[in-house]
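Lab notebook, design round three. We kept the backbone fixed and only want residue identities now. Task for the bench partner: fill in a sequence for the structure below.
Input structure tokens:
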């Protein structure tokens, strides 16, 4: 990915988060007012849901801003992982605010402490307007998701399962959950009005709480993997391995280690068995040339380390097989001589 593409990706993520923030802030206010007017636990739960989403967008904006800081002495690999940290806090925020309050409202209503329902039309109107605003934010999130997956050469479903930028996934999942939550709140409100039983309203609130728990868990798992040190996409690792194996000075690619250190940055460490006939000067020139060619072809590479090692180290070989098996080996073919 070129620098221009990286900037475009970052700008797109910022627009997506800002749109989601504006939508969720307005929706939260409307739902809270509607919940107080109607006495609906489901509407109040949805208000808490939108408040949680608003806090989440603020945290994601913080992540986008802080992760762009350049590398310095204390952080030689940059601040890209800040995006993963703040995304983890956003997931915790969804769980602590939206899910907890929704569960409380649902439980309180089922215990018979809910208020009498009134002015149901206000709730329907607010839910309808909320659906429109959430739909606009969701459409922007999906467009950004498709753009990111296209740049990575993946389907949008594959990218959503294993993204390098958790902010886009956060917005898409939050908006998806918001649209489902609106349907649940509408059903609870309508059934309460039709039957006079608050059980449906309380059940809808509990269902919204469960929905938010699932979303928070998914986002937390994504951020956890990236924070711990997730490897780059296997397709990219295979492509790098094949390119290394094609170098005339390289007898065998012994091992490749990668780690995502930012949404557009990858650290690479390659252990290579070079030809024994190379002098020290020739080995140095080969490493410089290989480094430059890799960075030119794979522009997401932020740091490249090439380590000469013998291929017959049994302990190293065992570690490589334990990590990758033969999933990479079968894709590497040595070029024919001449």
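Proposed sequence:
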């Amino acid at each position: 990915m070129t620098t221009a593409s990286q900037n475009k990706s970052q700008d797109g993520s910022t627009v997506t988060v800002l749109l989601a923030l504006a939508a969720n802030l307005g929706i939260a206010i409307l739902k809270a007012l509607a919940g107080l007017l109607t006495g609906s636990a489901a509407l109040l739960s949805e208000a808490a849901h939108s408040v949680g989403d608003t806090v989440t967008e603020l945290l994601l904006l913080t992540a986008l801003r802080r992760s762009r800081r350049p590398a310095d002495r204390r952080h030689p690999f940059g601040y890209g992982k800040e995006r993963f940290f703040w995304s983890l806090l956003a997931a915790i925020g969804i769980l602590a605010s939206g899910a907890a309050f929704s569960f409380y409202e649902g439980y309180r209503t089922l215990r018979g402490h809910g208020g009498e329902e009134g002015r149901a039309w206000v709730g329907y109107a607010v839910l309808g307007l909320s659906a429109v605003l959430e739909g606009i934010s969701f459409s922007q999130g999906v467009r950004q998701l498709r753009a990111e997956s296209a740049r990575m050469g993946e389907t949008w479903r594959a990218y959503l399962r294993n993204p390098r930028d958790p902010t886009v996934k956060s917005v898409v999942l939050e908006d998806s959950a918001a649209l489902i939550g609106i349907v649940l709140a509408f059903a609870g409100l309508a059934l309460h009005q039709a039957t006079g039983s608050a059980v449906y309203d309380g059940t809808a609130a509990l269902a919204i709480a469960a929905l938010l728990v699932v979303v928070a868990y998914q986002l937390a798992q994504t951020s956890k993997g990236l924070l711990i040190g997730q490897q780059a996409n296997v397709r990219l690792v295979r492509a790098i391995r094949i390119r290394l194996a094609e170098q005339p000075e390289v007898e065998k690619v012994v091992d490749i280690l990668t780690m995502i250190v930012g949404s557009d940055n990858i650290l690479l460490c390659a252990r290579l068995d070079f030809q024994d006939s190379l002098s020290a000067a020739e080995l140095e020139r080969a490493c410089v040339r290989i480094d430059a060619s890799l960075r030119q072809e794979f522009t997401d590479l932020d740091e490249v380390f090439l380590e000469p090692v013998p291929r017959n180290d049994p302990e190293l070989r065992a570690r490589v097989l334990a990590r990758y098996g033969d999933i990479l080996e079968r894709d590497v073919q040595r070029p024919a001589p001449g």
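Keep this in mind before ordering anything: The first strand starts at residue 250 and ends at 262.
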